[in-house]
């Protein structure tokens, strides 16, 4: 006598296998979506980290404007564009400004009296929703150390997944206090 599976046993086995396969594929799809979202967030954080480091290093090396060619006399920094920009003199005596323009963080370099260069600091994959500067310790008013607190709100675009706003704030104190 030959032993074989009945139709009901075969249908139960196919049903159990289908349930296991559906659960496994659901877990796989979910983990792939999570990995895509995490990689997009890492790209956004990498770009934002570069921006923060670049701006921090540049603002740390700013000098006091003793003549008043760039900003008010004896000031280290001056807010521009309704708080969305910051102007200063860099260590090479060039007038620079960081500002927000059409959701892009930009840098304006005024070298001498005529030459002006505007560079975008953010890639097309990064949208800057807000940029705010707060000045602390103005040497004209008091003798405290000048500091700049700036905050960014950024969001990634074109990464194929929706991204939350990332908000970052940092405070920079001036390195060279003699000027």
Strand content: 25-35%
Q: How many strand elements?
A: 8
Query: Can you write the helix and strand succession as a string?
Result: HEEEEEEEE
User: Low-confidence spans: pLDDT under 50, at least 5 residues?
Assistant: none
Number of DSSP helices? Answer: 1
Query: What is the residue-mean pLDDT, rounded to a whole number?
Result: 84
State the major sheet.
Answer: 5 strands, antiparallel
Structural class label:
alpha+beta
Describe this structure in words.
This protein has 179 residues and is of the alpha+beta class. Helix content is 30%, strand content 33%. The chain contains one helix and eight strands; from the N terminus they run H-E-E-E-E-E-E-E-E. The strands form two sheets. It has a five-stranded antiparallel beta sheet, with no helix packed on it. A three-stranded antiparallel beta sheet has the order 6-7-8, covered by helices on one side. A hairpin with a 4-residue loop joins strand 1 (77-80) and strand 2. The radius of gyration is 28 Å and the shape is rod-shaped.
List the main descriptive attributes of the protein structure presented here.
alpha+beta; 179 residues; 3-stranded antiparallel sheet; 5-stranded antiparallel sheet; 30% helix; 1 helix
């Amino acid at each position: 006598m030959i032993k074989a599976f009945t139709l009901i046993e075969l249908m139960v086995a196919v049903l159990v296998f289908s349930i296991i396969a559906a659960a496994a594929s659901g877990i796989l799809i979910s983990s792939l979506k999570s990995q895509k979202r995490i990689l997009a967030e890492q790209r956004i954080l990498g770009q934002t980290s570069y921006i923060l480091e670049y701006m921090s290093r540049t603002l740390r090396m700013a000098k006091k404007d003793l003549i008043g060619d760039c900003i008010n006399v004896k000031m280290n920094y001056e807010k521009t564009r309704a708080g969305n920009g910051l102007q200063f003199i860099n260590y090479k005596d060039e007038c620079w400004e960081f500002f927000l323009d059409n959701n892009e963080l930009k840098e304006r370099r005024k070298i001498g009296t005529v030459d002006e260069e505007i560079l975008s600091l953010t890639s097309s994959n990064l949208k800057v929703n807000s940029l705010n500067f707060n000045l602390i310790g103005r040497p004209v008013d008091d003798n405290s150390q000048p500091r700049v607190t700036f905050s960014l709100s950024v969001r990634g675009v074109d990464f194929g997944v929706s991204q939350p706003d990332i908000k970052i704030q940092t405070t920079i104190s001036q390195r060279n206090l003699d000027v």
